[in-house]
Design brief:
Keywords: ATP-binding, Carbohydrate metabolism, Glycogen biosynthesis, Glycogen metabolism, Nucleotide-binding, Nucleotidyltransferase, Transferase. 20% of the residues lie in helices and 28% in strands. The chain is an alpha/beta fold. It has two domains: 255 residues, Spore Coat Polysaccharide Biosynthesis Protein SpsA, Chain A (Alpha-Beta Complex); 104 residues, Hexapeptide repeat proteins (UDP N-Acetylglucosamine Acyltransferase, domain 1). The strands form seven sheets. A seven-stranded mixed beta sheet has the order 5-4-1-6-11-8-12. 47% of the residues are buried.
Length: 389
């Protein structure tokens, strides 16, 4: 039996404003995770491991930050002469030109390309969560269900008002609400959807015909509720790890989870999370340096103390400095005697000698230091602070 012709569309154009300065100069999917990876690596690796080789990445906000990392699809074996990776952005020249005003709007503007591609299944995934998933299972479940859309769902024990929340009965989704003030359940969508192409394109056209282009917005605003209302939506429950990292606190917390009790191994050869190769020497820990329960990317140099932290490529920690319960992105420099606690420090920031960031770490608040900023010697930034303010 021939494999279903699947088109994966990775929605990678969001600005990620809830991540504050972490997404000021990069798209959310380009944000580094785990010291060596980026968020977009998760859907692309899931695709590669699931045998999907037709992948479109839809960009908009700070597109260069994503495109540079994609490297033509090479890390995921998507650099092919037929199929493989295609990068799409806003365009001009036809009646659907213009900026994408949401995920549904982006798909509507690419509807002609989708129709010409003629897939059996359109799989749509966001690029702002950390998870492993066999997309082949999603596709098989969708084809077996005879539904218009399959939503991959998961139980979430935190604040669900930021997600699409569903109520399911016997595998059928009977209620869907986007970011509800009063959630009807703790069952949320993982932002992975399998669509029957004709149903997806028809639902997009119906919204435009009935309410106009401006009503499209995100999939959860009009398209998904309409499919649920007509009884055409089913769920596939994801029982493994899934963590949206759309806020500074969630981003920090996910890193700590991978340090304390990793939910899965990014280097598992049975399901590797692939990424673009880094061009650095190996990490170095000097004689007086101390590292415990931490992840160090290539090019890291530690002469001070690092505990329960994740250090990205090229980070340097000077003698006498302490880095505790923190996430340091590319090329950060921590000066002699400085102390950084429960903090996310964005790339190329400089923390000068004897500066103190994050207090004593006894509270729940996460401190954030912006990219390329300079924290002056002996400067103190309280727990939960933002620098610059």
């Amino acid at each position: 039996m021939a494999q279903p012709r699947t088109l994966l569309i990775v929605l990678a154009g969001g600005a990620g404003s809830r991540l504050e300065t972490l997404t000021e100069h990069r798209a959310k999917p380009a944000l580094r995770f785990g010291g060596s990876h980026r968020l977009i690596d998760f859907p692309l690796s899931n695709a590669a491991n699931s045998g999907i080789d037709d992948v479109w990445v839809v960009e908009q906000f700070e597109p260069e930050s994503v495109t540079e990392h994609l490297a033509g699809g090479r890390p995921w074996d998507l650099d092919r002469s037929r199929g493989g990776l295609m990068v799409l952005g806003p365009h001009r020249g036809d009646d659907r030109e213009g900026w994408h005003a949401g995920t549904a709007d982006a798909l509507w503007r690419k509807a002609g390309r989708i129709r010409d591609h003629d897939p059996d299944v359109v799989l749509v995934a966001s690029a702002d969560a950390v998870y492993r998933m066999d997309y082949a299972d999603v596709i098989a479940h969708h084809l077996d269900s005879d539904a218009d859309v399959t939503m991959v769902t998961t139980r979430h024990d935190g604040d669900v008002t930021r997600y699409g929340v569903v109520v399911a009965e016997g595998g059928r989704i009977v209620r869907y609400e986007l970011k509800p003030d009063d959630p009807p359940s703790d069952l949320v969508t993982t932002e992975v959807f399998a669509f029957t192409p004709a149903a997806l394109l028809g639902a997009l056209e119906a919204v435009v015909k009935e309410k106009g282009e401006d009503a499209l917005g995100d999939l959860g605003e009009e398209v998904l509720p309409a499919l649920v209302e007509r009884g055409a939506a089913v769920e596939l429950r994801h029982t493994g790890y899934w963590q949206d990292v759309g806020t500074v606190d969630a981003y920090w917390r996910a890193h700590m989870e991978f340090l304390e009790q990793p939910p899965f191994d990014l280097d598992d050869q049975r399901w590797p999370i692939r990424t673009r190769a880094l061009r650095h020497l190996g990490a170095r820990v000097h004689a007086k340096g101390e590292v415990a329960d931490s992840l160090l990317a290539s090019g890291v140099v530690v002469e001070g103390t690092v505990r329960r932290s994740v250090l990205g490529p090229g980070v340097q920690v000077a003698p006498g400095a302490e880095v505790l319960d923190s996430v340091l992105l590319d090329d950060v420099r921590i000066g002699p005697g400085a102390r950084v606690v429960r903090t996310v420090v964005d790339e190329a920031a400089r923390v000068r000698g004897r500066a103190e960031i994050g207090g004593d770490g006894s509270g729940d608040e996460v401190t954030l230091v912006a990219a390329r900023s300079v924290v002056h010697p002996r400067k103190r930034i309280a727990a939960g602070g933002r620098y610059p303010e």
